[in-house]
Amino acid sequence: MNDGHLHTPTGRMSVHRPQDYWYVACLSSELKSKPKSIRLWGSAIVLFRDQNGTPKALLDRCSHRNVPLSKGKCVEGHLQCPYHGWEFDGEGQCVKIPALEGESKQDKRKVPSFATCEQQGHIWIFAKANTEPNHQPFSFPHYQDSAYSHIPFQATFQGTMHANLENILDVPHTAFLHKGLFRGVERNLIQTEIRRFADRAECQYFGEPRPEGLLGKLLAPNGGAIEHFDRFILPSIAQVEYRLEDRNIVVSNCLTPISDTEVKMYTVVAVKVRVWTWLLKPLVLPFALRVVKQDQEMLDTQLACIEDFGGEAFNYTEVDVLGSSISRLLKRASQEAIPVSPIPTEQVAESVLRGQLWA
Ligand code: FES
Ligand SMILES: [Fe+2]
């Protein structure tokens, strides 16, 4: 509430750390024969490939004298520290100490390890160390379907994971911040239906005319009403889908929290439209990058303002359709390990909420 006082810090930031979940660590193509360091909520994690080429992930800190293991190298599928040459396997066991006569394996020398999974050109890690995952990572839809083209891209954004998820799934800002790119001057009253599930929330928009700009032209060259869905899937996937007859565009954005106030977004756009495949990438990428740039600038500005005022003081309305579901799910997932179902599922919604908005 604005109580009329100047600068009343709330100290609040919507920082959530759901740890029993998968996050994209990097692209498959970014992990070759050298170890690679990444960050998750500020902690350094080292990735490397073992002798079979399988990605492995350890805390990036040698258990001997705390040198980053990512500064070392891979030796016969093990990670070798650059200081005294200790070697660790993919499970974090110390398998060799060059100067020591006798057994090197000891529990206290073990480095925490993270489960990994490589699929669809991305390497995922499970954020809680030394834990057997209770579900599979998110899988990009229609990946095996040759009727679809897949366009991956990545971008880094300032702001909490929560602020970034809200931004991607926030319809009212598209007409304003991205004016002309999605929606034009004419406004329409659109019906909404929000469905909440244990591991995700979805909003379907009814009566939405063809979007403006490139997206609309690709989807509906002759106009017509489209089907539009926005989805939030735990822990950090924001998905936007448009359908018209047999045409379909699904944008899946997977966010990795590099720190509490910075995310890396791994996106794959799945497109099935009546346009030559070779034309799609040069058409879609510049459009996507323009949208991303506008969002990046706004999220920078938002974070600077929140930090300047010493915390958030947000207001929600009914047209921030998925906002409260995102907060609720992130809060819950930070406290308990909710397994995430593969999509699509046959699950029945826990609740359904109908509304409307101008867009
Ligand atoms: S610090 Fe890594 S081997 Fe000594
Ligand atoms: Fe945006």
Q: What brief labels describe this structure?
A:
34% strand, Rieske Iron-sulfur Protein, binds FE2/S2 (inorganic) cluster, four-stranded antiparallel beta sheet, alpha+beta, 359 residues, binds fe (ii) ion, Naphthalene 1,2-dioxygenase Alpha Subunit, Chain A, domain 1, eight-stranded antiparallel beta sheet
Name every ligand kind in the structure.
Answer: FE2/S2 (inorganic) cluster, fe (ii) ion
Provide the domain count.
2
In whole angstroms, how far apart are the ends? 27 Å
- Let me know the largest β-sheet: 8 strands, antiparallel
Radius of gyration over C-alpha positions, nearest whole angstrom: 23 Å
Q: Provide the residue-averaged pLDDT.
A: 91
Name the CATH class of the largest domain: Alpha Beta
What is the name of the CATH topology of the largest domain? Naphthalene 1,2-dioxygenase Alpha Subunit, Chain A, domain 1
Structural class: alpha+beta
Strand content: 25-35%
The percent range for helix content is 10-25%
Number of strands: 19
Order of helices and strands: EEEEEEEEEEEEHHEEHEEEEHHE
CATH superfamily of the largest domain: Naphthalene 1,2-dioxygenase Alpha Subunit, Chain A, domain 1
Please identify, by name, the CATH architecture of the largest domain. Alpha-Beta Complex
Major beta sheet, strand line-up: 12-18-17-16-15-14-13-19
**Shape descriptor:** globular
Number of helices: 5
- Low-confidence region ranges: none
